[in-house]
Backbone:
């Protein structure tokens, strides 16, 4: 029996080793597919004196610095490959003189492309359409190449947030941003002071804001709630939530346990309205930026009571980042639920292609119809900006997909035609179906 066990281990190891290199023909097909990026933070085109402060409701740059992981450090060879693919960089080094030449090339192409530059970048990345998580869209981010996904966490926190913001330095910054965003939404809706009752708040602020977002091009809505609280949005009655709102709307910070009940109620109200409006709900799950991030609160299993709520079955939920970090294995069983999807974003710049392939294969062996491609590209700076991050994340995702499907093919789980079909589903087909997009390729 021990001998048979050793043989089994050797066979499994040999199979895994074979799958480290994707099938060349399959990989060639994967590289040709024009992808739909389920999650990103592209910058708008700005003038020389302008600054784009709307690429994220809760940007990470102002936080206490943390050390970059291996994949995102400049020495990653993928960035050198990105320079070659994007800018025709002719060198195999990063000397100061050559990088200065690179930066001049980037500046020239940006000037030549003007407002077309973001679409030019997508063409270089092999991306057909990118879902842009932004406070608002802007120059160069035009449909159908860029589709808007606004942030709605601010709607969950209408009361005094000073106590919540005092929990960590990161939350102090984040709640300051949420306060400004809610004030912006109220101004756009011509709502001055907060309404005196919860019923009036949802009638005059929450529902109109969701409808405004839909009318102005939103294709889904986004919650970064894991940066602000745990994802355990438990059932809460309207009566209890209304009592908390009425008690503290004019003065005072509500105790955390009471405020949580109001947030729980508002989240499910918003999710219900999103379903009515045909807006999938995107949720950050897994690892987050900042040295004070509460990882345990971002476990997608915390959402089970929401995902099992029969009243929310008309609402589609997308688990962004697929529980990146310690929770990726929790995703596949959750995809059994008819209204739940997951994407690869963030993992594409946290993991190597080989490691990401392991995660991806697990999901594909469960429900390939529920898996979405995503980059989570975001603005950087200088020689390592959103274009390079986009190329690195796209390349990692495609390589990982090729490795995962090749392993399944070699192990007799799928045929070559099925592997090609799944590749197209992950890279674009599933997103087209989910968001009712027109398939132009």
Residues:
């Amino acid at each position: 029996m021990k001998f048979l066990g050793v043989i089994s281990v050797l066979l499994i190891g040999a199979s895994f080793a074979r799958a480290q290199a994707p099938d060349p023909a399959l990989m060639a097909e994967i590289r040709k597919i024009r992808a739909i990026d389920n999650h990103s933070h592209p910058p708008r085109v700005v003038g020389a004196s302008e600054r784009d402060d709307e690429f994220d409701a809760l940007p990470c740059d102002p936080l206490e610095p943390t050390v970059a992981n291996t994949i995102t450090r400049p020495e990653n060879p993928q960035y050198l490959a990105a320079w070659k693919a994007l800018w025709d960089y002719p060198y195999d080094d990063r000397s100061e003189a050559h990088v200065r030449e690179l930066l001049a090339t980037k500046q020239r192409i940006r000037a030549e492309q003007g407002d077309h530059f973001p679409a030019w970048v997508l063409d270089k990345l092999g991306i057909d359409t990118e879902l842009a998580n932004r406070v608002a869209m802007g120059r160069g981010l035009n449909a159908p190449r860029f589709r808007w996904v606004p942030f709605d966490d601010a709607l969950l926190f209408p009361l005094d947030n000073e106590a919540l913001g005092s929990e960590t330095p990161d939350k102090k910054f984040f709640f300051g941003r949420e306060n400004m965003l809610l004030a912006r939404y109220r101004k756009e809706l011509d709502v001055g002071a907060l309404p005196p009752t919860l019923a009036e708040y949802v009638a005059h602020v929450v529902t109109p804001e969701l409808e405004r977002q839909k009318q102005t091009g939103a294709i889904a809505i986004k919650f970064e709630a894991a940066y602000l609280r745990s994802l355990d949005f438990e059932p809460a009655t309207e009566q209890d939530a209304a009592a908390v709102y009425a008690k503290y709307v004019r003065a005072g910070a509500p105790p955390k346990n009471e405020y949580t009940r109001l947030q729980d109620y508002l989240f499910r109200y918003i999710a219900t309205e999103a379903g009515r409006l045909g807006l999938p709900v995107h949720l950050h799950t897994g690892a987050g930026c900042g040295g004070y991030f509460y990882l345990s609160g971002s476990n997608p299993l915390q959402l089970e009571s929401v995902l099992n709520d029969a009243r929310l079955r008309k609402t589609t939920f997308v688990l962004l980042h697929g529980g990146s970090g310690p929770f990726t294995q929790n995703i596949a069983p959750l995809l059994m639920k008819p209204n739940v999807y997951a994407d690869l974003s963030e993992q594409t710049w946290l993991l190597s292609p080989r490691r990401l392939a392991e995660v991806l294969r697990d999901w594909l062996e469960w429900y390939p119809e529920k898996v979405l491609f995503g980059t989570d590209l975001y603005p950087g700076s200088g020689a390592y900006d959103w274009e390079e991050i986009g190329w690195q994340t796209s390349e990692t995702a495609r390589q990982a997909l090729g490795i995962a499907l090749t392993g399944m093919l070699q192990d007799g789980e799928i045929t070559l035609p099925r592997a090609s079909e799944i590749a197209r589903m992950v890279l674009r087909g599933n997103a087209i179906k989910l968001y009712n997009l027109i398939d132009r390729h």
